[in-house]
Write a structure and sequence with these properties.
Rossmann fold, 6-stranded mixed beta sheet, about 35% helix, globular
């Protein structure tokens, strides 16, 4: 599903060059529940951003579902993200003036889907993630865990092949974080969606079925656990 071939990425700060990734190669199969981990500066967020088509590699290639994303125009990348990818962020990134229902339905409204189908899919998915009865609440009236459930529903509503989650438990207590991870695991099993986490949280690493460790922009370990 995802093939990463000899990918490198540098960042420049004045005269200083930071080698964020150094020739990383990796294959990720359909339906994986996968975590990228490592200390600050290891390259994990850079790798997640490259898979998410938010940034371009300096060298190497990234192939997603048989299609190379390296060298695509910004417009083509935006269309690719809209069709193939979903995102879950540590800060939730919900639109504060929209209700839980509206935050999730908004993603479908951009795809010119019939309003009746939008209502059916949005209501069903909010129920699936445990938010039935909370559809009309604004984010400010939801707990952190409930907001992250809205974010997960928003990521899944387009039925993407891949969901990318950057530190999804960072703003949650350990109990709520475990509940959110279990929810994503259930969604992975039910829908076959690839989940890829970037994290330094040991609990997220423990949940992952496969764990990649990065250090100084290189893969140091690739462990399958389940």
């Amino acid at each position: 599903m995802i093939t990463i071939k000899h990918v490198s990425k540098d960042y420049h700060a004045g005269d200083t060059v930071v080698h964020a990734l150094r020739g990383v190669s990796l294959d990720i199969g359909r339906g994986e529940f996968f975590s990228i981990a490592g200390p600050s500066g290891s390259g994990k967020t850079t790798l997640l951003n490259l898979i998410g088509c938010i940034d371009d590699p300096d060298s190497g290639d990234i192939i997603i579902d048989g299609e190379s994303v390296s060298g695509k125009t910004k417009k083509d990348l935006a269309l690719f993200r809209r069709e193939k990818l979903g995102f879950v962020f540590q800060s939730f990134n919900l639109i504060p003036v929209l209700t839980a229902y509206e935050n999730v339905a908004f993603a479908l409204s951009l795809l010119n889907i019939d309003s009746r189908k939008i209502k059916e899919r949005t209501s069903a998915l909010l129920k699936e993630v445990g938010l039935e009865g909370m559809e009309n609440r604004l984010p400010s009236k939801l707990s952190g865990g409930q907001q992250q459930r809205v974010a997960i529903a928003r990521a899944l509503i387009k039925k993407p092949s891949i969901v990318l989650a950057d530190e999804p438990t960072a703003n949650l207590d350990s109990k709520t974080g475990a509940e959110v991870l279990k929810l994503m695991e259930d969604m992975n099993k039910k829908h076959g969606t690839i989940f890829i986490f970037s994290t330094h949280d040991p609990m997220v690493m423990e949940f992952a079925y496969r764990l990649i460790l990065l250090h100084d922009g290189e893969i140091t370990s690739d462990e399958r656990r389940k």
